[in-house]
Amino acid sequence: MGEAMAQLNCPFCFEAVPLKSLCRRCPEECGEEPDVELSRFRGQENRTISLPKVFTPTTRKKDLCPHGKIAQRTHLCPHCHNDLEYDYVVTAAGSRPIALIGASGSGKSVYVGVLVRELKNRVGSAFNGMAVEFVGDASRAHYDQVFRVPMFERGVTLEMTASIRRSKRLDPLLFTLKFPGAARRWSDRMAIAMMVFLDTSGEDVLEARFMSRLARYLDAAAGIIMIVDPLQMPNVRDSVSTTVYPRGATRQVDVLERLGALLREQRKLGPGKRVDTPLAVVLSKIDTLTDILPDQSSLRRQAEHAGYYDEADGQLVHEEVRAWIQKWYGEGFIDSIEASFSVYRFFGMSALGTAPPAEGRISPSGIRPLRVEDPMLWLLNRFGFVRPGEAKI
Q1: Are 371 and 299 in contact (CB under 8 A)?
Q2: Rounded to whole angstroms, what are the CA distances from 274 to 46, 211, 235, 339, 378?
Q3: What is the full DSSP assignment across 88-100?
Q4: Model-level pTM?
């Protein structure tokens, strides 16, 4: 991609930004811009703030601000004026961002917290030292405050950290997956996949006030992971023994249908056209289904994925989860996926590994995740970062 064409999507407002249009920040003594309405940029409640002056370097003296002073070495989005980390700027144009969506209470946030930890440890070691690195101090602090400390140190789920979650809700969690020493068909350099997770809920696609930003977020994604909660299906709740149920009763099929419609509208697809973004439909909380799943179920065992994506295992899980969802939800859910997406696969996982003893609490036996990496590895396989079959990286 030539320099004139290179662009990225801002992880805060998700507007497309040509790299040459990124702004710099004036020194503090240059003053501030007039008040602006923050809700234009961050989707927050209407209020105004003063933003430091920013400018786009278009002259030869790119290190100087319009006032002739040395500009700060930062990159800012020209739309929302948020700081963009250097690592994001240099990798985002060629990365594969993955979006996450699901109804409230489906386990999205717990999934992200556990997934990052598994990728950094168990999964990373199986893939030739795949490194997981947070992009900037803000994302590192975000993960520590919202995920690591509550879940892995205090033993509580994110329902118990609602105030922290609300304060971080509009801040994206950015991290990269780096694959050292892996030969790639397009380059011999280290392959890097950029992850952009936003704490949004499936209900957001049903509310007009969130629509514009959410549509850009989903449209910018190279892959989408949709979390489906079996405990929000009436046919399942009557058959399991757990007593800890999610609050609310959003129809997950409504979220799915709106997701497809939103993307078709965003991309101006004609009648009969399907979205080509790969969709991973993930059945969460499978630890609660022990009364339902047969002993030979593939969902009862961990996948190997020892340096590759096990395609045969993935197909088995796909067919089994598809059959369960069809039984519990009927043909409508499956038909909606097939009508909207040309590439999709079903998965099953448990982020905690065992049902919580009470609302907001993690089992004293600790977190023992099951199959949390499967959807991510499938997407990375489709993007060319991870090989299929039994050929180790």
Answers
A1: yes
A2: 36, 20, 30, 7, 20
A3: HHHHHTT---EEE
A4: 0.83
